[in-house]
Amino acid sequence: MTLQLSCAQFSASGPRSENQDALRLVTPVPTLAASKGYLFALADGVSQCADGALAAQSTLQALALDYYATPETWSIVQALDKLLLAQNRWLLANGLLTTLSALVLRGRRFTLAHVGDCRVYRWHAGHLQRISEDHVWEQPDMNHVLKRALGLDQYVVMDYLDGELREGERLLLVSDGVWATLGDPGIRSILSDTDDLQACTRALVSAAHLAGSQDNASALLLQVDSVGHDDLGDTLRQLQQWPLPPPLKPGQRFEGWQVQSVLAQSRQSLLYRVSDDSGQPWLLKTLPASRADEDGAGQALLLEEWFLRRVAGRHFPEAAPLPERQHLYYLMRQYPGRTLDKLFAVTGPLPLVQWQDLATRLLRATGLLHRRNIIHRDIKPENLLLGDDGELRVLDFGLAFCPGLSSRIPGDLPGTPSFIAPEAFQGADPAPAQDLYAVAVTLYYLLTGQYPYGEIEAFQHRRFTTPIPASRYRPDLPDWLNDQLTQALQADPQQRFETAEQWLLELEQGEHRSVTPRPRPWLEREPIKVWRTLALLSLLGNLTAFIVMVM
Prior knowledge:
CATH topology of the largest domain: Phosphatase 2c, domain 1
Oligomer: single chain
Number of strands: 18
CATH architecture of the largest domain: 4-Layer Sandwich
Number of helices: 15
Distance between the termini: 109 Å
Shape: globular
Number of domains: 3
Low-confidence stretches: 514-520
Largest sheet: 5 strands, antiparallel
Strand order of the largest sheet: 1-10-9-6-7
Helix content: 25-40%
């Protein structure tokens, strides 16, 4: 069951010439609603500032647009807080002030972000509960003087509240033009007497003005018709309680899938090749029996599946929908093709044109990962599949990391040593820069068959000074490509490309310069002739010197 809501809103300027209240209801497409939720907000611009209406409207506009553009792996509070801190700086710089109450409803829960003197209520079974605090000074002579608001101070302090939704309840947001006149008893009376949401919001605003309110008055009313599923964290905790699949044998049917073979088995995971009813091949990934009781193992497997669903697209394997799943596993589509390490084993160092094409695809895929707030942590030729359809796909999300969702074990250093960034060896937290370093090593290897700092073993003492230029092994490499690789391989992450998009832009701009190999020195093209010429010149010099001495 998904979260189902009904909503209504109404606002009126009252005796004032301008309405400085603003309301916003955002009901996104179902997939986005499931990950980011529904956003409802009320802002009341402060009339004493330069333009209260602009302050309120611009804040809700920025919130509605930017909130849904934040990484879906951010928590609701994390996303709201970052956006509102940025909006506060803009308001402060322009002399604008506004109050704000914003509700995000997702799954079974709500999150409230609040600052100022609008009010938020919960109404259920005849009981009215205020869940927001008025940020005003309490002294009688300072009635309704704000002590906290957006744009008032350099550092805004928002109130955040998280709670569980109840089916049938209503959530009400009202400006001070409503509650200051009607009070809680008046609001309670109207909510009790009026079932229609739109009629209720109009009644609240009209009653406030009839009772003498001299301010703008606004009301936004939500009704929870049905609650939805739990959020991602709750779902993972629930699903990891599923049992592991029993040992599967070729020819067996398992939850609607035809088992073909055991493809790979290790201490960390178990991989089967299966097919659906149409014969399409899939890979079923689960845990070996030895990890059945390991803390966090089940959640990590399901988080890996979630990563794949988050980055769904041409650069990554498709994850299968599993509405009837009753065991701990997930499925991803199997694509015909070969990994780049196997391609290299057959062809050796790649031609420049093919290498540039793969570099462009890999940077696009890596950039998409990072925009989704996911760090792969194991980019290498073995985990890059060049499909028969020509697509390059990033495989194996078993070590992927998402800040805020993934847990990091102190001292743990996942990945393949030769592709691990220097700062990771020093204990740095996972970061996109480490993926970009792995991309650089991968491209360097595909171009040269070597490693920029030499091959690194697991327990080797690691020293990173200056990477060996790729042009030493590939004299046909244009200078601009050699320079880009050298920059991407620097030991200091501050000296590398900041993002995948930055490197991709420079790579694409470089393509317009031409991929014509740089002119090779005569010594590289004709080394025997060069040395013969030098020997002859030396001999002639010695003979000349001898003749001069004799004479």
